[in-house]
């Protein structure tokens, strides 16, 4: 009888204790879930920041790459190559555009003597002797230290010869041999001088 009464008295306490334990477990689980949710939100935020940063880095790199590509496209050599190609094809609008671009960006370009020489050679081939002389003289006056000087003097001498100005031509052929010995121009000038001497005599 006493045992039954004791059991009846203990049961509510046991049930309460069990309920309390379960409640505590639930609260513990909720706390863990809440903590995990916070960590997930934090990771998502960090991920978003990284993506944004990466996107900005990629954009900066793309911009930098474009700047490099533009720099290469508008380099002194590239512009001259564009001029040379279009000039040889007779694409007047294109080579004039390239020449303007070279003049604007590289006013002291090392390629100008070559451009004048190409102009002179082309003019000679077309029989435009005055234009050729003007181009040769531009090299001699503007670029006295250019490697094209011997070729320009020789070209000028040949132009005089074409114009039947034999004495002027002969004078330049002799000057080339003295001033620029051991060059292809000096060798050719010697041959031309010999031919002219025969004509003059």
Detailed description of the structure:
This protein has 201 residues and is an all-alpha fold. Helix 2 packs antiparallel against helix 3 and helix 7 runs antiparallel to helix 8. About 8% of the residues have low confidence.
Task: Give a short summary of the structure.
Helix content is 86%, strand content 0%. It has 201 residues and is an all-alpha fold.
What class do helices, strands and sheet pairing give?
mainly alpha
Q: Tell me the span between the first and last alpha carbons.
A: 161 Å
* Main pleated sheet: none
Strand percentage lies at under 5%
Element-level helix/strand string: HHHHHHHH
Figure out the total of helices: 8
Q: How big is the Rg?
A: 45 Å
Q: Write down how many β-strands occur, each being a DSSP E stretch of 2 or more residues.
A: 0
Output mean pLDDT. Answer: 80
Helix fraction by DSSP (H/I, runs of at least 4): over 70%
Q: Give the low-confidence spans.
A: 5-11, 65-73
Question: What is the overall silhouette?
Answer: rod-shaped
List keywords for this structure.
mainly alpha, 201 residues, rod-shaped
Protein topology:
Elements: H1 2-73, H2 76-88, H3 92-105, H4 112-125, H5 129-142, H6 149-162, H7 166-179, H8 184-200
């Amino acid at each position: 009888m006493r045992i039954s009464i004791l059991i009846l008295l203990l049961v509510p306490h046991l049930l309460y204790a069990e309920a309390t334990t379960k409640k505590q477990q639930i609260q513990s689980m909720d706390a863990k879930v809440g903590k995990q949710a916070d960590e997930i939100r934090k990771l998502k935020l960090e991920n978003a920041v990284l993506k944004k940063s990466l996107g900005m880095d990629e954009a900066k790199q793309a911009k930098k790459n474009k700047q490099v590509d533009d720099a290469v496209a508008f380099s002194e050599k590239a512009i001259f190559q564009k001029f040379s190609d279009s000039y040889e094809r007779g694409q007047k609008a294109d080579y004039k555009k390239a020449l303007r671009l070279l003049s604007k960006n590289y006013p002291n370009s090392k390629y100008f003597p070559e451009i004048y020489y190409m102009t002179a050679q082309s003019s000679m081939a077309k029989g435009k002797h005055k234009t050729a002389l003007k181009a040769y003289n531009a090299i001699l006056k503007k670029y006295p230290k250019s490697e094209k000087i011997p070729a320009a003097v020789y070209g000028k001498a040949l132009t005089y010869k074409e114009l039947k100005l034999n004495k002027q031509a002969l004078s330049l052929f002799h000057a080339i041999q003295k001033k620029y010995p051991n060059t292809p121009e000096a060798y050719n000038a010697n041959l031309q001088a010999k031919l002219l001497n025969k004509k003059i005599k």
